[in-house]
Amino acid sequence: MAGADVRRFSRDQRGAVTTYITGIMYGALHVLASIFLHPALIISLFVSRLTSSYTTIGLVVGVGTVAWYLPQWTIGPLLSGRRRKLPWAVSAGIVRAAALILLAYVAYRGDRLSDAQLLRSFFILYVAYSLSAGLSAALMEGILLRGIPDNRRSRFFRQRTFWAGISALAASLVIRRIFDSGFNFPRDFTLLFAAAATALSAATFFSARLHEPARMAPTATPLKRLAQEIPAVFVAPDVRRFLVFRWTLALAALGDPFYIIYAIRVLDIPTTMVGLYVLIFVGARLLSVPLWNRITERQGHRAALQYASLLRLLTPLIAILLPFLLDTSLYQERINAPMAASYLFGLVFAVSGIAMAGLDAGGSGYLNEIASPQVRASAVNVTNVGLAIAALSPILGGYLIGRFDFERAFLAAGLAAFVSVLLGGALRDSHARIKRPATNWRLGRSRL
Question: If pLDDT is split at 50, 70 and 90, which confidence band does 15 have?
C-alpha cells in the first residue's frame, strides 16, 4: 500500500469514530424536527387555520411529500459521480434550516398578515424546506453508509434507531406541553417551527463534522442501466404484485391529513388534544416495533404487510363509526364523560402509528426477498415513484370532503385499504421456514 493510501486509510479509520457518533446525533435531531413538522397532524392543522379549502390542505401536504422525493431523482443523480458529497449535503442542510427559520418568523408575524399572505408564504417556504430536506437526506445516508465500517454498521443503525425513538417521544411531549397550555394561533406553531429550525440547525452543524472517506471510490449511479431494467421490474410477477399492492395501500393515506380536522370541526374535540394525539401516534409506532420484528421473524415480511393493510383499513372505519357509537344509548347511559370521545378518537392515531411501523418492518424486507439482485435497485426506485404519486392522494381526499363530506373521503380511504387487503393475499410467501426433524424433537424431549 502506498504511503499516501496508508495516511488516507488512517484518517478514514479515525473519521469512522466521529462519523459514528455524529451520525447518531444527526439522526436523532432529524427525527426531532420531523415530529415538530408532522404533515398529518401539525402541518394540516396549521393550514386549516388559514383556508377553508380542504383541497388546498391536501395540496400542501401532498406537494410537500413529492418535493421531498423530487431532488433525489434530479439533483441526486447529477451529484452521484462526485467524489465529495458532504459539502452539497451541508449546503442543503443550511437551506433547510434557513427555510424553517424564515417560516418561524413568518408565523411570528402572522397577526400582521392576512390569511392568504400567510398561506402563500408558508407554502413557498415549506416547499423549499421539503426540497432541501430530500436532497440532504439522500446525500447524508450515502455518506454514512460509506463512513461506517461494515462490522459496525448494524450496531450503528440500531443505536441510531433507538435514539431517534427517544427524540420522537421527546418531541411529542413538547408538542403536548405547548398545546395543553391552551391553543394560541399562531404562537403555538411559531414555537414548533422555531424548535424544528433549532434541531435542524444543530443537525447541520453535526453533519459538517462528519468525515467523508477520501479513499472510497465514487459511487456513480448507472442511470442508463437502471432505465433499461425498469421493464424487467414489471415483468417479474412477484415484484409486479408487490408494486400494485403497495401503491394501492398508499392511496389509503388520502384521509390522513383530515382526521385531526374532522375531530375538531365535526366531533368538537378541543384543539388542546393535538399534543396527546401526536404522543399516541409516536408511542404506538415505537412500542409496536418489537411486535412487528417478531412477526417478520416468525411469519415473514409478507405477513407484516398484510397485517399493516388490515390496520390501515381500521383507521378510517374507526373515524366513521365513532359518531354512531357516541349516539348509542349504551354510551349515553354508561359512559358519556365529557372527554371520553376525545380519548376514544385517539384510537385512530394509535392504529395508524402501529400500521406505519408494520409497513416499515415489512416493505423493504419483502422487496429484497422477492426481487432479484439485477432489478432490486430499479424496483426500489419504481416503488418510490409510485409512492410519490400516491402522496398526492390527499388532494383527492380534500376534493371529496369539499364536494360531499368527511365520511365520503374516509370511505374512499377505507376502500383503497380494503382493495390492498385483497391484493395482499396474492403476494408470494417468501419466508423461509426451517422445519425441525422429528428425531431432533424426540431427542430434545428426552433431555427434559
Answer: low
* Peptide bond just before 222 cis, omega within 30 deg: no
Residue 217 backbone zone (phi > 0: left; psi -120 to 50: alpha; other: beta): beta
In a 13 Å sphere around the CA of 97, the CA atoms on its Cβ side amount to 19
C-beta of residue 253 within 8 angstroms of C-beta of residue 390: yes
Which phi-psi region, left, alpha or beta, contains residue 432 (left: φ > 0; alpha: ψ -120 to 50)?
A: beta
CA distance 371 to 364: 10
Cα 383 from Cα 378, distance rounded (Å)? 8
Give the CA dihedral 281, 287, 290, 294, nearest 10 degrees.
-60
CA-wise closest residue to 186 among 267, 104, 252: 104
Whole-model pTM: value is 0.87
Task: State the sign of the Cα–Cα–Cα–Cα dihedral 44, 50, 51, 52.
Answer: positive
Instruction: Identify the three-state secondary structure at position 338.
Output: coil
Mean pLDDT of 422-435: 78
Which of 251, 257, 194, 198 is CA-nearest to residue 64?
257
The whole-angstrom separation of Cα 308 and Cα 305 is 5
**Residues in the chain, how many?**
448
- Kindly state the DSSP code that residue 328 receives in the 8-state scheme: S
Neighbours of 85 (CB within 10 A): 20
- Angle between helices 340-370 and 301-327 in degrees, nearest 10: 160
Which amino acid would we find at residue 216? M
Q: Which domains, ranges and CATH numbers included, belong to the chain? A: 13-212 (1.20.1250.20), 223-429 (1.20.1250.20)
Question: Each residue of 189-219: pLDDT tens digit?
Answer: 999 999 999 999 999 998 888 777 765 544 4
Rg (CA), the chain: 24
